[in-house]
Amino acid sequence: MSLYDEYEIKECNLIAGFQCNCRSKNEVFHRLMQPYLTLLYKRCVYKIKDRTAAEDLVQDILIKVYKALPTYRHDALFKTWLYKITDNVCYTFLSRKYNHNIITLTVMDNLAVVNDRNVNLEIDFNKIIPRLSINEQEIINLRFYKDFSLNEISNILQITISACKMRLYRALQSLSILII
Q1: Is the pLDDT assigned to residue 123 strictly greater than 50?
Q2: Is the N or C terminus of the chain more exposed, i.e. has fewer CB atoms within 10 Å?
């Protein structure tokens, strides 16, 4: 058993301990989140380019994680789940900073009627998207999952509109190559 496997088992035990509403819930949460604090902070700084605001956002992220942790289902790695929450908090911050309304779309959760073909297509995209670069994943997420306009994306990413268009074009090109 590798060191990573041992840590993952310890992490799963901490999550289970938190979810069972034990008396030392806050201590368990502290032990669970301690290794991730620096990573979350660095990710926020990378996304929003503001160190002071990043510190506040990490606190918001910890609150969201604390509230959402009882419903965590181990469908993805815990670190991936944390990064998704972090990204969403950062995007919300940036959209408020630029006075834009956020439109959130959950791809599979809010679909009323889904046939097998759509489910298979969604599963395929979930396998393909992680094979793209971080920048490509980010712009596809903002454009198609968050439904931001190109102007909003350029403000959020702090790039010009032409750079935004080019980045989206290249991401779609990479995606089409992976699909074929």
Answers
A1: no
A2: C
